[in-house]
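Sequence and structure are no longer studied apart. To make this concrete, we show below a single chain and its fold as tokens.
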Amino acid sequence: MRLGIYGGTFDPVHLGHLLLAEQCREACRLDQVWFIPAGSPPHKPEHAITPGKMRAEMLEFAVAGQPEYTVSRREVKRSGPSYTVETLRELRQEHPEDELFFLVGADSLADLPHWREPREIATLATLVVVNRGNAPLPQLESLVPHLGREAVDRILVVSMPGIDLSSSDIRRRVREGRSIRYMTPRAVEQYIRTNSLYRGE
């Protein structure tokens, strides 16, 4: 099976996240895409993000009825900081016959050398970098010292429309009492309203 791994905070998930996943699923012929919400991102204070259980529930509402999409709570259930390399090692052990593809935005790819064990990440999974619209890609050659020549040569590039959506903007709009309709799935919008999320930030 060709398995796409899509990690992130997803606080909240929005249509840009879903479009990225779908573009990668189609372009890379992925059998499934697994959304893996981070438990405690090492680069964000724990108090600054919505509890993992709620972020996972919003994701599950967002992808309901899509058999190619799965939400994994493995990082949410794990204690301590969430590191991508640890998640990929677990998946490699659990699915030794499957081919793993790690989906990442172009901005995150540029930051990848600063993650924990970036070379191991690139060994465990094929990197799929998604470029938004006409935005320039990071210089792949600059990644060779950090990821290795073979891994950089295997990087797949997928393009998606330049949709200007961000989770931080959605949180800000909710805090200001503004509409978020058509920015996130309707079920997620209702979940945010029902649970009074982001109003007290």
In short: The chain has one domain: 2-164. The domain at 2-164 is CATH 3.40.50.620 (Rossmann fold). The chain has a mean pLDDT of 93. Residues 15-27 form the longest helix (13 residues).
